[in-house]
Specification:
The protein has 347 residues and is α/β, with parallel strands linked by helices. 43% of the residues lie in helices and 12% in strands. It has 3 domains: 4-67, Orthogonal Bundle (434 Repressor (Amino-terminal Domain)); 92-213, 4-hydroxy-3-methylbut-2-enyl diphosphate reductase, catalytic domain (Cobalt-precorrin-4 Transmethylase, domain 1); 249-341, Bovine Mitochondrial F1-ATPase, ATP Synthase Beta Chain, Chain D, domain3 (Orthogonal Bundle), CATH 1.10.1140.
Length: 347
């Protein structure tokens, strides 16, 4: 059977305000979001949902559903991202976070790493004064202040290199980003991967705040409060790269096992916070301990943060991340001191 995925770029072009449009015909925005990122596979979705989306986009089901087209992953060598919500090359990535949850540090780190891989980094500066972006600018090739300049620079740099383009949600609300992405469809450039963030933090309280996405990163308040960085939620963050045959099946199997463990671990932590460690059922102590170790392992020192943390940044190949996570899931580090797993690279 052909591999199926939603034509997210078509939805972006045809239905800019997808949240309101989906609600108006009885679709849950969360369902639409999960279809776009692949959290709900096309094969498991209801036919009426797909028909309704095709109606909104004024297209046929054949146009809405792509067959046999794989989504290429950009490997960042950041453990949490590569394992749970890989970057879809050429897609749109949305960051859902409140201020001070680490999204700008993560963006700066990504820019630092991807520049070394030959990507050109372009950032569209939001209106107003945003001193919090100063550290990010350091790792950007070009900062522009208008959509037109963003287009010109992307054309200029994109003829030779893959491009990472970043914009604030304010440009999404005006519809300018969708128009820009549509223009990119008609020119001969390398891939353009778009990152969207919200400096105000309003996206946390909204459904589909950026419209359809290929990759979604939810930042987690609990991880932030406990200084577990990058504070990307491993349960709610997802990517279309994870759909079926687009991903190595070993990766998918380990990713699903890890999510299952962390989901239960989080439930047990809530219990412990209220009633103490003695409240954990004896049969679940092993689950809690392995969840603790996996969460600790997923922390990672960043190169851009070295001056502040005093810890040398590290990169971890995806194959090493998968091997390490499998070992943790299978109990190979059950006897390890939890502290030795915090902010390391590979085991």
């Amino acid at each position: 059977m052909d591999e199926l995925r939603l034509n997210v770029s078509l939805l972006r072009r045809r239905v800019p305000n997808l949240t309101s449009a989906a609600k108006s015909i009885g679709l849950r925005p969360a369902t639409v979001s999960n279809l776009c990122t692949g959290k709900i596979p096309i094969g498991r979705s209801e036919v009426r949902t797909l028909v309704a989306l095709a109606s909104l986009a004024q297209c046929s089901l054949d146009e809405l559903i792509l067959r046999g087209e794989s989504v290429e992953m950009i490997e960042t060598k950041i453990k949490t991202l590569d394992l749970f919500a890989p970057i879809a090359k050429g897609g749109t990535i949305g960051l859902v976070a409140r201020p001070k949850m680490g999204q700008l540090v993560l963006l700066g780190e990504l820019f630092y790493r991807l520049k070394k891989e030959g990507y050109s980094i372009i950032l569209l500066k939001p209106e107003g004064n945003h001193p919090e972006l100063n550290d990010v600018f350091e790792h950007v090739d070009v900062v522009v202040d208008s959509i037109e300049k963003a287009y010109e620079q992307t054309i200029q740099l994109g003829t030779k290199n893959d491009v990472i383009f970043t914009a604030d949600r304010s440009h999404v609300l005006t519809g300018e980003i969708y128009e820009l992405q549509e223009r990119f469809q008609n020119v001969n450039v390398q891939s353009v991967t778009t990152f969207l963030l919200d400096l105000k933090g309003e996206v946390v309280d909204e459904d589909l705040p950026y419209g359809p996405l290929e990759t979604l990163w939810h930042f987690d308040a609990d991880l932030t409060a406990r200084h577990r960085f990058p504070a990307v939620n491993p349960i709610y963050s997802t990517s279309s790269v994870l759909e079926g045959a687009h991903l190595d099946q070993n990766h998918l199997f380990i990713q699903q096992r890890a999510q299952k463990l962390l989901r239960r671990y989080r439930e047990l932590r809530s219990l412990v916070n209220v009633k103490g460690t003695n409240s954990i059922p004896t049969a679940e102590i092993e689950t809690f301990n392995r969840g603790e170790r996996l969460e600790a392992y997923l922390t990672q020192p960043f190169y851009v943060a070295e001056p502040y943390t005093g810890i040398k940044g590290v990169s971890v190949e995806l194959k090493d991340t998968l091997d390490d996570v499998r070992k943790i899931l299978d109990g190979a580090v059950d006897s390890e001191d939890l502290k030795t797993l915090n902010y390391i690279g590979s085991l």
